[in-house]
Amino acid sequence: GHEKVAFEKQTFPFEGEVTASNLYVRMAPKADPTSLPVTVLKMGAKVTVVGEKDDFFQILPPSGCTAWIFSKNVKKEGEEGIVTINDSPVRNDSRINAEKLCSLNEGDKVKIVTEHMGWYKIEAPKAINYFVGKKFIKFAGTAEGTPIVAPNIDVDSLASAKIREAEGMIAEMNQKIEA
After folding, report:
1. What is the pLDDT of residue 2?
2. pTM of the full predicted structure?
3. Does 29 sit behind a cis peptide bond, omega within 30 degrees of 0 on the bond before it?
4. Could you say which of 46, 98, 147, 179 has the lowest number of CB atoms within 10 Å?
5. Is the CB of residue 113 less than 8 Å from the CB of residue 121?
6. How big is the chain by its Cα radius of gyration, in Å?
7. What's 86's DSSP letter?
8. What is the DSSP letter of 118?
9. Residue 87 vs residues 106, 121, 130: alpha-carbon distances, Å
10. How many Å separate Cα 172 from the centre of its chain?
11. How far, CA to CA in Å, does 23 sit from each of 14, 18, 19, 32?
């Protein structure tokens, strides 16, 4: 007497729409006092969902989310900045011992919002993880043009494996050419 239901596994990224009147965006995939909200999204707001963890979706930084980077690590050009060193920490506030949210590398571009005592407040880079409750997001379409982000995958080891594979193919081709 039960109706059969087909469930489709969601592929990332996709565009989601907020269905709650006020949806808290958090830095961690949990809704307890240790995971303070960083911003609030209103009903109808659009987000780009790039992953999931338990009852939460991982999203790209929504508009208005900011972070801090040490100004000596950035060459400022108007409202833009270019990171000048590798592994430059991006923090949640303008203190050297503030929580590290992600790292940027030499050549990465940032949008500078303001400056404060040797720090730049910047628009949050896509590398920062933000989370929202799954039950408050509905599918609104594919997020074309957005790079797919696979959470919890070691991208460096995947890239190294691809490089080794390519080097093997090159060596094989060189042997054929010599023959």
Report:
1. 57
2. 0.70
3. no
4. 179
5. yes
6. 21
7. T
8. T
9. 8, 17, 20
10. 38
11. 18, 7, 8, 14
Would you state the pLDDT for residue 57? 95
Burial class of residue 67 (count of CB atoms within 10 Å of its CB; 0-12, 13-18, 19+): buried
Cα 23 from Cα 137, distance rounded (Å): 9
Closest of 127, 132, 131 to residue 20, by C-alpha? 132
Q: Characterize the bridge pairing of strands 74-77 and 130-133.
A: unpaired
Question: What's the half-sphere exposure (Cβ side, CA atoms, 13 Å) at 159?
Answer: 3
Nearest to 74 by CA among 29, 108, 31, 50: 108
